[in-house]
Amino acid sequence: MGVILSTSERKGSARERLLARLLDAFGEALPPPEMSLREIAARIETSHALLRYHFGSLSGVLAAMLKAQRSRDNEVLLEAAQQGTFDDFVVAIWRTYTRPEQLSRARGFFYVVGLAAYGPRTSVGS
């Protein structure tokens, strides 16, 4: 298995580079629920052990991806808030999170929240 790094991927910590590769591989979506950590690792041409080291678990990978995606969303929504009224802002939020392509993120969000609710002592997204 050869690991391919682009010029932009060489910047940042190993965890940040892995996260960038995860986001590139899955776009706005999250890995499907039936996909294992090994399958996710294979998709980004790394090892599951490396993902486990940097993110702790599959739920840690999902939490990190959700956090990064949410951060990007917030930047876009902040622009909308500054350019329009409060009503425009609320509509922008609604449209952002109710698009059909957001379904995997919504599922992933509730999966991670469920894990945190049932195992609060477990680190989900360090």
Describe this structure in words.
This protein is mainly alpha-helical and 126 residues long. It has one domain. The protein has six helices and no strands. Helix 2 crosses helix 3, helix 4 packs antiparallel against helix 5 and helix 4 packs across helix 6. The longest helix is centred in the middle third of the chain and has 26 residues.
Short description:
The protein is mainly α and 126 residues long.
List strands and helices in order, with pairings:
Layout: H1 14-26, H2 37-43, H3 48-55, H4 58-83, H5 86-98, H6 103-118
Helix pairs in contact: 2-3, 4-5, 4-6
The pLDDT mean sits at 84
Amount of helix: 55-70%
Which segments are poorly predicted (pLDDT under 50) over 5 or more consecutive residues?
Answer: 1-9
CA-CA gap between termini: 28 Å
Task: Give the class from helix and strand content and strand pairing.
Answer: mainly alpha
Query: What count of helical segments does DSSP give?
Result: 6
**C-alpha-based Rg, rounded:** 16 Å
The fraction of residues assigned to DSSP E strands is under 5%
* Largest sheet features: none
Whole-number total of structural domains: 1
Rough outline: globular
Question: How would you name the oligomeric state of the polypeptide chains in this document?
Answer: single chain
Number of strands: 0
SSE succession: HHHHHH
